[in-house]
Amino acid sequence: MKTKQEYINALECITKEYYSTVRFPEECNKFNRYLRLFEGLVNEHFEEKQETNLEHFEDDIATVGFDFAIKDGKIMSCKDCCCSECRFDDSDVACYTLRLHWLYQAYEEKIRLTQFEYDLINTYSDCHARCKFSDCKQLRELKDKGYFQNVDNYTPIRDILECYEVKKS
């Protein structure tokens, strides 16, 4: 299979060749319509579709049912999880609303942390749900020294702990 850039280069060559000869305006309009159609097909073919949480966790959700919770990054039955330990616990929004919103979000790969990084960030696990990595001065300073390179500054601590994977040394 050719790459997207190769298709685009071919379209540019075809366009140059076509316009190198004298054409009637009607022919040019027709050619431009076909060219736009082909460009759209190339873009659609090479479009990268991001997998949603629903698509990624479909089998797990089918096993436990739609009334599920997420605790420590794992899907489980809502009955087997305390609300305060669930990712969807929020006093302002109903958990089923947050669950539905989460299902259609793009799936994010696990954040890779060293055991030291995980142990350190885990000491912040009791901070409020909206506490972000950038809210913690010590973590920011360690990031400046080379730690936590895979962590975005605006990610909530809770999300980091739910979506981590310890690197094997």
Describe this structure in words.
- The protein has 169 residues and is mainly alpha-helical.
- The protein has helices at residues 4-19, 25-46, 53-56, 58-64, 95-103, 115-122, 137-144, 157-162; strands spanning 68-71, 74-77, 111-113, 164-166.
- The chain has a two-stranded antiparallel ribbon. It has a two-stranded parallel sheet with strand order 3-4.
- Helix 1 runs antiparallel to helix 2.
- It starts with a helix and ends with a strand.
- The mean pLDDT is 84.
Distance between the ends? 37 Å
Q: Name the poorly predicted regions.
A: none
Figure out the total of helices: 8
What order do the SSEs take from the amino end to the carboxyl end, as H and E? HHHHEEHEHHHE
What value does the Rg take, in angstroms?
25 Å
Inertia-based shape: elongated
Mean pLDDT: 84
| Computed structural class | mainly alpha
- The biggest beta sheet, please? 2 strands, antiparallel
* Percent of residues in beta strands: 5-15%
The number of E-state strands comes to: 4
Strand order of the largest sheet: 1-2
Estimated helix fraction: 40-55%
